[in-house]
């Protein structure tokens, strides 16, 4: 090794030793201040100790006292510096996790605790805090879901009379028992046009109104189908006929034209079929009044019928 390089190493080691001694002097002064109940002086001395030699133990002690003094931001920074060393001090990781949790950052809190549990799987404080953090995260998720659901339901409950529609369109919707935005979204174009006196101009008017809100007719049809199936199942519950809704529509022995129409609508069981309206079936190309009557007659044999629009 060259002489200059050896000299630099010796000088560096000497400086490190002097810095460590200086840091220890400040750390001792901090301990005396703490014994005297003077936390402010102790923090000042610990800051000097960290400036001289930022070892993890001193960083943790400074962070801990800053934490107790309510200096959360600086405490957080000191804890983060402490855990950069390997191995990271367990108490620093746990206290850092608590600060992250207080800030609402559950993800980073969980990462700190996982780091502790990887080396000490049975650490009681880490295990306890991990349960709290995970419960908190689940609570936040549930609250967000509930909030979104309430907003969506509130929007769907808006009366259609609140929208700028012509008198004819409003009158038709009222007669069809379409009272709210949710009712309208569960209605298809075919169902609207199938109603007496409801023309293309009224349909275009409604479609433009919904489009301006990023919505469209029929987008809530699946919800309507699920609700209809659930309602019929509740009616049949206890009668011993619940399994009837799972029967395949192929058992109805329908004509080829009627079967093709049901396939296009992805209707596979009697439960699927009775959740649809006449207008939905009639909206399928080549499905006419004869096929509709055929389907209705077959359902009647089982004591069932197609869903009415106002259901």
Description:
By secondary structure, the chain is mainly alpha-helical. The protein folds into 3 domains: about 10-145, Tetratricopeptide repeat domain (Serine Threonine Protein Phosphatase 5, Tetratricopeptide repeat, Alpha Horseshoe); about 160-210, DNA polymerase, domain 1 (Orthogonal Bundle), CATH 1.10.150.20; about 240-300, DNA polymerase, domain 1 (Orthogonal Bundle). It contains 16 helices and no strands.
Furnish the topology, listing elements before pairings.
Layout: H1 3-35, H2 39-52, H3 56-68, H4 72-82, H5 90-102, H6 106-119, H7 124-156, H8 167-175, H9 181-185, H10 189-193, H11 200-211, H12 221-236, H13 256-264, H14 270-274, H15 278-282, H16 289-300
Helix pairs in contact: 1-2, 2-3, 3-4, 4-5, 5-6, 5-7, 6-7
CATH H level of the largest domain: which superfamily? Answer: Tetratricopeptide repeat domain
Mean pLDDT: 79
Q: Would you tell me the structural class of the helices and strands?
A: mainly alpha
Tell me the Rg in angstroms.
36 Å
- The number of E-state strands comes to 0
Overall tally of domains:
3
Sheet bearing the most strands, described? none
- Poorly predicted runs are 6-14
Global outline: elongated
Beta-strand share of residues = under 5%
What is the helix fraction of residues, given as a range?
55-70%
Q: CA-to-CA gap between the ends? A: 91 Å
| Elements, N to C (H/E) | HHHHHHHHHHHHHHHH
Specify the CATH class of the largest domain: Mainly Alpha
Remind me, CATH topology of the largest domain?
Serine Threonine Protein Phosphatase 5, Tetratricopeptide repeat
Q: Please count the helical segments.
A: 16
């Amino acid at each position: 090794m060259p002489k200059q390089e050896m000299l630099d190493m010796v000088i560096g080691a000497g400086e490190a030793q002097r810095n460590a001694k200086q840091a220890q002097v400040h750390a001792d002064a901090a301990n005396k201040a703490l014994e005297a109940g003077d936390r402010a002086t102790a923090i000042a001395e610990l800051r000097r100790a960290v400036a001289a030699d930022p070892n993890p133990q001193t960083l943790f002690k400074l962070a801990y006292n800053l934490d107790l003094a309510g200096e959360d931001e600086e405490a957080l920074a000191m804890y983060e510096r402490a855990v950069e060393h390997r191995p990271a001090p367990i108490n620093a990781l746990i206290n850092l996790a608590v600060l992250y949790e207080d800030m609402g950052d559950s993800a980073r809190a969980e990462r700190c605790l996982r780091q502790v549990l990887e080396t000490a799987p049975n650490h009681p404080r880490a295990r306890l805090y991990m349960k709290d953090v995970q419960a908190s995260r689940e609570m936040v998720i549930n609250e967000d879901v509930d909030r979104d659901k309430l907003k969506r339901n509130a929007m769907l409950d808006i009366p259609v009379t609140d929208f700028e529609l012509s008198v004819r369109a409003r009158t038709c919707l009222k007669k069809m028992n379409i009272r709210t935005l949710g009712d309208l979204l569960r209605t298809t174009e075919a169902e609207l046009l199938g109603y007496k006196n409801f023309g293309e101009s009224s349909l275009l008017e409604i479609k433009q109104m919904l489009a301006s809100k990023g919505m469209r007719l029929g987008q809530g049809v699946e919800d309507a189908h699920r609700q209809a199936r659930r309602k019929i199942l509740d009616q049949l519950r206890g009668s011993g006929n619940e399994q009837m809704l799972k029967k395949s529509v192929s058992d109805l022995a329908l004509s080829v034209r009627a079967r093709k129409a049901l396939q296009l609508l992805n209707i596979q069981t009697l439960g699927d079929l009775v959740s649809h309206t006449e207008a939905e079936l009639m909206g399928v190309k080549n499905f006419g009044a004869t096929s509709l009557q055929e389907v209705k007659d077959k359902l009647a044999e089982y004591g069932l019928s197609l869903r009415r629009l106002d259901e």
